[in-house]
Amino acid sequence: MKLRTLLLVVTILAALSAAVFFTQRSPRPKSADIRLGEPLTTIAQIEEAVNLRVTDQNKTVTLARQPDGSWSVTSFFDLPADFAKITGLVGSLTEAKIQRLVTTRAERMDHLGFKDTQVVLINTSGKEFLSLSLGKNAEGGGRFVRYGVEPKAYLANFEGSLDAESKNWANPILLNLKPEDIAQADISTGQGSSILISRTKKDEAWTSAQIPGGKKINANKISALLASLGNLRFTETSELNDPGYIATKASARVCKLTTFEGKTLTLTFSHKPEEKISPTAAIADVTTSPSKPSPALNAPKQIVFPPSDAGPIPLPQPANTTTPGFANAPVNPVFVVITHSDASAPVNAIMQKRAFQIAGYILADLPQKADELFESIPPPEPAKSADEKIDEPKRD
Question: Is the pTM of this model over 0.85?
Fold first, then answer.
């Protein structure tokens, strides 16, 4: 075969081989999803948000970032938000990562539990730039997630839960004042008077011009009382014009705490006193039913004798008016109003929003009598006679 013919055959065969290769080669793999391995939300996205919305089980909580960087619960009377709770949510969203793409088929996504559980981030222009829907928990761990209305469902190692109860996002702390920061305390008693105690340094003993003879200030009692007064948290709120709250103001008790910095906080505690039930009234209330007419005066009385071994019939006891665990805690709600001497203090603005209810034991801790804040001075030990003295051992 001539060289020219051979080269022509080789060229044709090479062309055919190339054609076969390109027609029968495997298709190029599709590029991986860009979200795989990425967190559900980035820190940059959180910093861009000025509003955050959490929805679950037909409840929605909305949070707003304030100019100073703090957050408020706009869905709960615009009260300050619990920073620790927000930090927990941000941490769970930024630490969880997309593990894999589950499906892009609508019929499969319908079975992954995407309903109303959402986290939405909103920027300054009011745009929802991130909408994250959470579905069911996967059997092998993690949770199904979806971004907006995208036809994609992912699996992320998100193990947290969403709380859509607005009250739970509000910071319950109304006052956080350490006892060592208090220089003076004017403490109300249950007799309508007050006891004023003071000190010039935090490590000095308390003094008062009202100490009775033979008494001294009970340091342990004062320390425990100031710790209770300085740590106030609300448990519930009411409207400022609520009749139940207004009715408590008639029995208010006032305490004033002054710090070493010269700031004064006035604490006004109020609650509606419980109605006392006398034993006679309790017996009448038990033996006479208002739904049945009283027996006729001339009706024959039937006396029923108990069995001889039954013992005496116990009389009805007055209704229990104490809270379990706190013998003197009032049953009716206890409210507090805090007034700061610094007009710009945030607590002053908070007090204008709602009436705040606190734990009843705090009011029960206040003394009913001035004597409760004092204790007897122990008598001096009698001097020992010469015969009673013990000689110290001689030293070498």
Answer: no
